[in-house]
Amino acid sequence: MGFIHGIGRFLLVIINLVLVMVSLSLITVGCIVKFGGDTLNKYTDPVLKKIQESAQGAFDENDFSVDNFDLGEIFGTVATLLIVMGVVLLVISFLGSCGACCNIKCMLILYAVILLVLVLGQIVFVVFLFGYTAVLKDAMKKPLKNLLKNYKGLNGTNVESLAWTFVMQEFQCCGLENYEDFKRGDSEWFGEGNADWKTPVSCCKQLPKVKNDFDCAQTNGHDAEHNNFNKGCVDEIWRVLIEENTTYTYLGVTAILGFQLLMIVFAFLMYCKDDEKVQPSERRSKGKKKRNRRSEW
After folding, report:
1. Half-sphere exposure of 198 toward its Cβ, with a 13 Å CA cutoff?
2. Which of 15, 169, 217, 241 lies at a 20 to 30 A Cα distance from 277?
3. Contact call for residues 204 and 216 (beta carbons, < 8 A)
4. Are residues 52 and 40 in the same domain?
5. 113 and 150: one domain?
6. Sign of torsion, CA 36 38 43 45?
7. What percent of the chain has pLDDT over 90?
8. Are 135 and 55 in contact (CB under 8 A)?
9. Mapping DSSP to helix (H, G, I), strand (E, B) and coil, where does residue 205 land?
């Protein structure tokens, strides 16, 4: 039991120190996305330049610019979530490392209880992730639908238009569910100057580079070979990020839950082990007090 206790103490200290570094990394990434978009330009510039070249060539708009694209504004909520997650993880890992290193029992029990609550929450999330996919997809659609309202097409230079063009080209999709999202009046798009267009140009598999070459959105607007009209972005994002990585997702979730449960067990073992050390001395002191009282009588 003493060996397990020592291993548990060592693992709690080392692993939680590592988690402190991870939490600081999450906070740093969140701050970079939210406040330092220029740092991430190298990841978004290739697609944005393709959008700019296509818009300038197809619409002959030399003043078209993608400078309004602010990753922090688009993914501000995600960045804030990363910062919050980093702070929470920092608090938890601090409790675990200090509690184990210094034998502070209140920290150990608090650490174990917080981890247990997180494990239960993660189990609920996993159930929804694989058992109630439609619920999570609907939750994704709400914020995206608000962005779609201000979409004006490939030649739109507002943040929402650039963001949607970026997403539809990156994930090869069209609208939230399909091209009909643009026909129902859910956005400001109205055929990029021609109401007879079948889809926005951004739904084309290849963006046009020649002036007024819009066949992929007009004549071939419902041709799956040239247009992504029937592929919703929510489903495509879900497929790319979740379904194509199902095995890794299962393994990752199982490893994280198993790791957290192991940390909870070690924390409780340390808590109980300290109790065992204290209890015999407490019994001896109580026995002495009883004998002293008897001698006094």
Report:
1. 18
2. 15
3. yes
4. yes
5. no
6. positive
7. 5
8. no
9. coil
Residues 14 and 76 in one domain: yes
Range of the domain at 19: 1-131+246-297
**Cα separations in angstroms, 175 against 112, 191, 198, 202, 233:** 44, 14, 12, 10, 6
Single out the residue of 219, 206, 45, 76 nearest to residue 147, CA to CA.
76
Tokens of 265: 């067990």
Angle at alpha carbon of residue 271, lines to 270 and 277, rounded to 5°: 85
pLDDT at 49 over 90: no
Beta partners for 204? 227
Q: Are 54 and 207 in contact (CB under 8 A)?
A: yes
Q: For the segment 57-101, what is each residue's pLDDT rounded down to a tens digit?
A: 566 555 555 555 555 556 666 778 888 888 888 888 888 888 887
Check whether residue 122 and residue 5 sit in a common domain: yes
Is residue 223 domain-shared with residue 144, that is, in the same domain?
yes
- Please state, in angstroms and as integers, the Cα–Cα distance from residue 73 to each residue in 78, 80, 152, 217, following that order: 10, 11, 18, 29
State the total domains in the chain: 2
For residues 28 and 46, is the Cβ–Cβ distance under 8 A? no
Q: Coil, strand or helix: which one is 177?
A: coil
Supply the DSSP string of 93-110, one letter for each residue. Answer: HHHHHHHHHHT-HHHHHH
User: Could you count the other beta carbons within 10 Å of the beta carbon of residue 30?
Assistant: 22
Residue 227, SS3 per DSSP: strand
Which residue in the block uniquely carries the two structure tokens 């959105």? 217
Residue labelled with tokens 């999202």: 181
The pTM for the full model equals 0.61
Which residues are CB-contacts of 102 (< 8 A; sequence separation ≥ 6)?
Answer: none
CA separation for the pair 210, 54 (Å, rounded)? 8
Mean confidence (pLDDT) of the chain: 76
